[in-house]
Amino acid sequence: MHKNRCWLFSVFFLVAAPLFAQEPIPADWCRALPRPEYKSLERVRVSDPWFEVYKPAPNVYAIYEPHQAEETIGYLIVGEKRALEFDTGMGISDIKKVTAELTKLPVIVLNSHTHDDHVGGNWEFDTVYGMYTDFTRQNAKGSREDAQAEITPDQICGTLPKGFDPQTYATKPWKMSAYVHDGDKFDLGGRTLEVIATPGPTPDSISLIDRANGLLFTGDTYYPAPIWLFRPETDIDAYAKSIRRLAALAPQVKMVLGAHNIPVASPAVLSRLVAAFEAVQAGKVPASPDSPGKVLYKVGDISFLMRAPTAH
Ligand SMILES: [Zn+2]
Fold this sequence. Notes:
Blueprint: H1 7-16, H2 28-31, E1 42-44, E2 52-57, E3 60-64, E4 73-78, E5 83-86, H3 95-102, E6 107-110, H4 116-119, E7 128-131, H5 134-139, H6 145-149, E8 178-180, E9 185-187, E10 192-197, E11 206-210, E12 215-219, E13 227-229, H7 236-248, E14 255-258, H8 268-281, E15 287-289, E16 294-299, E17 302-307
Parallel strand pairs: 5-6, 6-7, 7-8, 12-14, 13-17
Antiparallel strand pairs: 1-2, 2-3, 3-4, 4-5, 9-10, 10-11, 11-12, 15-16, 16-17
The structure holds zinc ion (ZN).
C-alpha cells in the first residue's frame, strides 16, 4: 500500500457529500497523474481502460491501476512455457482478461503479500501460490471492510468500470494451490524467479528476483511513495532485516520494480532505503503528524508511514 488516505477528505465526504450533489473535487494524488516517469516506458494497449500496461523489461508487463489511490502495480512475468502474475490488483476490474491479452501461456499467481489491493483478482485464477502464514490463510477467506475503504470518493480518480457494483465490492476468497518458502524457484522456461522472504510490512511479504535479467520485484517492501509500516501485522524489526537483505543483492540487480505508483527504480535506492530506515530507528528523523495515530518520516525521496510513538 502506498499513500496516506486523506482521512479529513473521507470524513468530509461521509458527512457532507450528500448535501452537495456535485462531482467530487479530485484528490491531490489524482491531480498529479499521469506521473511523468511513465513517459519513458513502453506502453502496451489493452482493451480494459481501468488498467494501463507498461513494459519495463522484455517479457515483463507492469499492470497499473491509476484510477484508484493505491496505484497498485501487478507484474506479469513471462517465460517460454508459463507466466507468473505477481499480484492481481484491486479486483475492481477483470485482471485475468488483461493477462489473457498479454500471453497465451498458462498463468500462475503469486502474491507479494495478501493485503486487499494485491489479491483482488486471485479468485479468477486456477493456480495461486502463497506463503504458509496464518495471515495469508486468513486473508484467503476474503473480506469486505478493507475493500470498501478503497472506493470512497477520495480514493477514485475518474470513473469506475462499467458494471462495477460498489455495494457488493469485496475481496473475494481464493483457493491456495500450494505454499512457497524462502528460496523456492519458479522455472517459467528460459526464466527463473526466486522467492526472497521479506517479512515486515506483513508476515507474508516476499520479493522475487530474476537473477539472469537483474530484476528485483519488491512488492510493498519498497515502492517510491510513503511505505506503509503502521498496520497491526507490521513487524518493524523484521522489516529492517528484510531491506538489508535486499540491499545486499543490489550488485546483481539492474532494476527494482515495486508494487505501487511507479514501476521502475534504480538498485541504488536499496542502500538509501536501508540508511533512511536506520536513521528513523535511531531517532534521527523528525516525525511529522499524519492521520490520527500515524506519523510520517521522510528522508529525501524515501518515506515511511508509521504508528505514532506512544507517550511514556
Ligand atoms: Zn500495497
